[in-house]
TrEMBL record:
Protein name as annotated: Vitelline membrane outer layer protein 1 homolog
Record carries keyword Membrane: no
UniProt keyword annotation of Signal present: yes
Swiss-Prot/TrEMBL keywords: Signal
Leader sequence residues: 1-22
Family matches, as Pfam families: VOMI (PF03762)
């Protein structure tokens, strides 16, 4: 097991000035962590001494700044990550216990959908970014062309990040089929998030080999700005079959895509036409 040790407290900032978090006072600390001779700087906020339950409650109350928290067993000191990312580098720190809250969105502000989705399959359960995180990019699972029964798009995975532009390591993908390989990632420009999408779909025709959804593309936009947006697609930007439909609605200002729900055609076995992913919906969160 790797042991991460605090080798140096660089400095104490705002020692006298503080911000109120509930009934607790925050002070910012910078820690340098040594891991296999690599030095990493991590900003934490100490919110005082309390029980693990109290520490978890503080994290829940400040979800934009925290998804996992460190509570030092020996000192009962509660420390929250500021960026919204989970600082798992403290996971094995001597004398500490990392609480994994694994919080999900309890609700959403809007559902995004398109009118040209495939007609086959069943809707899988929705999946979300960790609370306080939003989609900053995506990747797809695509089966390349071959001689019999092509399925093309089999899954979509959204990549999540914080509003502080930190990539946090969490992701969401909903249901998927097992054919094909994952593409590389397509990421929004800095400080922007996925806010609308368009789906390329081959219409169902019983006289041919059907593939349903082939490709997906998005628009990226600043969280607080309804103005300029940017098209985002993974090269070459389209699949082999079907065509793109109209763009979905966009997430409202002060929100972005945070979750996904896919409609998946199950594996029908040898000799029966499979189409894998047929349709998708995305959820906006504020």
């Amino acid at each position: 097991m790797k042991i991460y040790t605090i080798v140096l407290i660089l400095k104490l900032i705002l020692q006298n000035a503080s911000l109120t978090v509930g009934k607790y006072q925050k002070r910012e600390e910078n820690f340098i962590i040594e891991s296999n001779k690599k030095i990493r700087l991590v900003n934490l906020t100490s919110v005082g001494r309390m029980s693990e339950t109290q520490c978890a409650n503080v994290c829940l109350q400040n979800s934009d700044n925290c998804c996992e928290i460190t509570c030092a067993s020996s000192t009962r000191e509660c420390k929250l990550g500021q960026s919204g990312c989970c600082h798992t580098i403290f996971d094995d720190m001597s004398g500490s216990n990392l609480l994994h809250t694994r919080r999900k969105y309890g609700g959403y502000t809007k559902i995004l959908f398109v009118s040209n989705g495939g007609v086959l399959g069943e809707w899988a359960d929705e999946e979300y970014c960790t609370k306080g995180h939003y989609a900053i990019g995506y990747k797809m699972k695509i089966e390349g062309p071959h001689e019999t029964d092509n399925t093309e798009l089999n899954a979509i995975e959204i990549i999540c990040g914080s509003r502080g532009s930190d990539r946090c390591g969490d992701k969401a993908s909903s249901g998927q089929q097992h054919w094909g390989d994952w593409t590389g990632e397509a990421l929004c420009p800095a400080n922007t998030f996925l806010t609308s999408f368009s789906l390329q779909v081959q219409k169902n025709d019983e006289s041919r080999d059907n593939t349903a959804a082939n490709h997906v593309k998005f628009k990226c936009r600043n969280f607080k700005d309804s103005g300029s947006d940017f098209d985002l697609s993974y090269p070459p930007g389209y699949g082999l079959y079907g065509s793109y439909g109209e763009w979905s609605d966009a997430c409202p200002v002060n929100s972005a895509i945070c979750g996904i729900k896919t409609k998946i055609h199950p594996d029908k076995g040898f000799g029966i036409d499979d189409t894998a992913l047929n349709d998708v919906q995305f959820f906006c969160c504020d």
